[in-house]
């Protein structure tokens, strides 16, 4: 079975541009979460979507947005890119349900460089 | 605010040595997870601990959850070069909160 797939694997943008990152979860998983991992830090929570609805949002500006599609794939959009947005963006899927402990399965990430 | 503090930040040891890494918080978590991440890859779940005082073993890795469910430790016996990586703890508070990680290097 395929794991979590993310595209693209690497991306170079300039300040002020917009970027869209894509994620396909493990088959059967209905929850997708997005994390930002800056070099030398642990992953920081951005969004969680479950059954196409936003279930959680981290402390990120409104320039960050996401959505989940009927097939449970997801996109993360970042507008007006800043140098500080350079990071590894990780997508994780899970079979999370309310009241259960979440086990996350991560993709390999998209390495975004903002110049 | 860093809810989960991991120590040490870096650890470089020789093959065969034992080591312990720590994950501490002032917050109580419903569960705590440990992940290992290799360069260019996403984190991979190693274990989830749920009950205060719980101990779980995974081959040469021993995980312990503190009685008050605020801290955890990971002990590796007879480390091998294949154990090299970034070890992350993550606490559950609705969504997962990650620590900054311990970067482990095991030299042959």
Low-confidence stretches of chain B: none
SSE run of chain A: EEEEEEEEEEE
How far do the termini of chain B sit from each other? Answer: 37 Å
Overall pLDDT confidence of chain B: 93
Uncertain segments of chain A of ≥5 residues (pLDDT<50)?
none
First-last Cα distance of chain A: 37 Å
Q: How many strands, which pairing sense, and closed or not: the largest β-sheet of chain B? A: 6 strands, mixed
By DSSP (H or I, 4+ residues per run), the number of helices of chain A equals: 0
Helicity range of the residues of chain B? under 10%
Strand content of chain A: over 45%
Radius of gyration of chain B, whole Å = 13 Å
Greatest contact between two chains: A-B, 23 and 24 residues
Q: Which class do the helix and strand fractions of chain B yield?
A: mainly beta
CA-atom Rg of chain A in angstroms: 13 Å
Q: How many runs of DSSP E, i.e. beta strands of chain A?
A: 11
Helix content of chain A: under 10%
The multimeric state of the shown protein is heterodimer
Tell me the overall shape of chain A: globular
Q: Please tell me what the overall shape of chain B is.
A: globular
Count of DSSP H/I helices of chain B: 0
Written account of the structure:
The complex is a heterodimer of chains A (115) and B (108). Chain A is mainly β. Helix content of chain A is 0%, strand content 50%. Chain A contains no helices and eleven strands. In chain A, a hairpin with a 5-residue loop joins strand 7 (64-68) and strand 8 (74-78). The mean pLDDT of chain A is 92. Chain B has 108 residues and is mainly beta. Chain B contains no helices and eleven strands. In chain B, the strands form two sheets. In chain B, strands 2, 4, 5, 9, 10 and 11 form a six-stranded mixed sheet that branches. Chain B has a five-stranded antiparallel sheet with strand order 1-3-8-7-6, with no helix packed on it. Chain B starts with a strand and ends with a strand. The mean pLDDT of chain B is 93. The A-B interface holds A 4, 33, 35, 40-45, 48, 56, 58, 90, 92, 101-109 and B 4, 6, 30-31, 33, 40-45, 48, 50, 88, 90, 92, 94-101.
